[in-house]
Amino acid sequence: MFNKVITNQTKTMVLLMLVFTAIILLFSGLVYFSIVNFSHQRFYELLKIRTATIIQIEKSKDHLDLPENYVLSSLNDEELPMEKDYVFAVPTDSNFKKISQEVHIPDYFFKNIIKQGESNYNDKEFYYIGQSFRYDDKDYIAIASAKNHYVVYYLGFLKRTLLTCIVLSLFFSMIFSFYLSKTLFRPILKITGKVKEISSENLHLRLESQPDNKELNELVDTFNDMLNRIETSFETQNHLIGNVSHELRTPLTSIMGEADVALSISRTPEEYKDTLEIILNEAEKLDKKIKALLMIAQTGFDGKIQKMDKVRIDQLLWDVIETLRRIDSRNNIYLDISMLPDNPKKLKVQGNEQLLHLAVANIISNGCKYSNFQQVKVSLGATDTDVYIIVKDNGIGIPKVEMNKIYDPFFRASNTNNYEGYGIGLPLARNIVRMHHGELIVSSHENQGTTVQMRFPNFYSMQQEG
Fold first, then answer.
1. Which DSSP state fits 387?
2. Integer CA distances (angstroms), 117 to 23, 88, 320, in order
3. Torsion-angle region of 298 (φ positive above 0: left; ψ -120 to 50: alpha; else: beta)
4. How many CB atoms lie within 10 A of CB 134?
5. Which residue of 30, 99, 149, 353 is surrounded by the most CB atoms within 10 Å?
């Protein structure tokens, strides 16, 4: 429930605030403790100088014979705030309890001085540093102590200043986080609003590019590409329905018309026979178109449902050419093998031989038909990964404005009225090529001819990908 109410913009703002707060607290703490540490070190250095001065003064005296447990205190003028200095002889039993009670300094501090030669200590207000020294074969300890006004007073001011800065920084970071999150999400909200406007009724609308925003522009371009594909799919579907309706209605109209005419008056058996032959002929055309439509639909599915074998494209091409020449002797086909590879294994593809035969035969047959049986050049070549078949004719070509419809089933170019056909060969061939993970590219110029390139990955490259 909470996640549904809180938007990503709010989450981003809170996250930025948390990050800013953590950074501000981290640096504030770092500054505070660095200054405190520096203050302690600096003050101990001053106390150390004072201790050295005390030792030097005491050693300069003609006679320094302090009784045991006697503390010589406040020897010098105050150089530091509330400075107190002490000098006393080290007890022979190293018991500093009496001295400790007198000067209110813990006895372990004295023991550390004896052990290390120098030690420091501080309570809530005073800082102490002591050093041991030897004079006339006796051991003494000199201690300098003072109040660190900087720590007591100035660090308090530093705390208040840092707290004020932290509060102000949090306030401004909140404003900045709100502004930044709003700026970041504004183009996304704008895109979301525009996407909501797009429906099946206005698929022509496109998202606008966002200035100086590479990532969002990639998203916009990707979405616009998807809209292009959807719009093309919608148009193709509309064209398909129109073409199929027209192609199926024509023979049905002919059948119904012939039957209606035959039944209108009594006719001779010969006339009925002629009418039935016409009806049968039109019914056969209708059956062919329905089968072709079913074939296109089946080849549009995943190619894995088809049986795939190892097929040599050069042998398949020779078989296609022989078949086409046998069907119509006017088919004038020239096979160019100048680009054949040295290794014939490169001509093998993984595919269904019957479907490949059907696709290649359709493309070459179209070339022969629409070039009025002029010579059609078929070239075969291969690279290390692909096999290429290029079919080039010098026929009527395809009008440029109709190139975007050539893969629509039952679509026929406007300059093909004098040629028989159903408009299914090219879309069927493309579906078959796609089933074999290949590519079919058509380039054409009206009255100059058409070139169709088919590319298939060879058997070994498919095995490596698999």
1. E
2. 43, 15, 107
3. alpha
4. 10
5. 99
Burial status of residue 263 (CB atoms within 10 A of its CB: 0-12, 13-18, 19 or more):
exposed
C-alpha 401 chain-centroid distance: 37
Residues belonging to the chain: 466
pLDDT tens-digit series, residues 406-430? 888 778 899 998 888 878 788 888 8
- The predicted structure's pLDDT at residue 389: 96
CATH number for domain 309-463, candidates 3.40.50.2000, 3.40.630.10, 3.30.565.10, 3.30.470.10:
3.30.565.10
- Break the chain into its structural domains and give their ranges: 1-154, 217-300, 309-463
Q: Distance of CA 322 to CAs 65, 155, 165, 214, 409, Å? A: 132, 101, 91, 56, 27
The helix (H) or strand (E) run that includes residue 140 is strand 138-147
**Residue ranges of E strands in 82-137:** 84-89, 118-122, 126-135
Residue 1 corresponds to which tokens in the numbers above? 């429930």
Report pLDDT digits (tens) over 88-131: 888 888 788 888 888 888 888 988 998 898 998 888 778 899 99
Measure the N-to-C terminal CA separation of the chain; round to a whole number of Å.
Answer: 46
217-300 topology per CATH: Helix Hairpins (1.10.287)
Q: Using an 8 Å Cβ cutoff, are 422 and 246 in contact? A: no
374, 378, 373: which is closest to 340 by C-alpha?
A: 378
| Residues facing residue 348 across a β-bridge | 312
d(CA 319, CA 463) in angstroms, rounded, equals 26
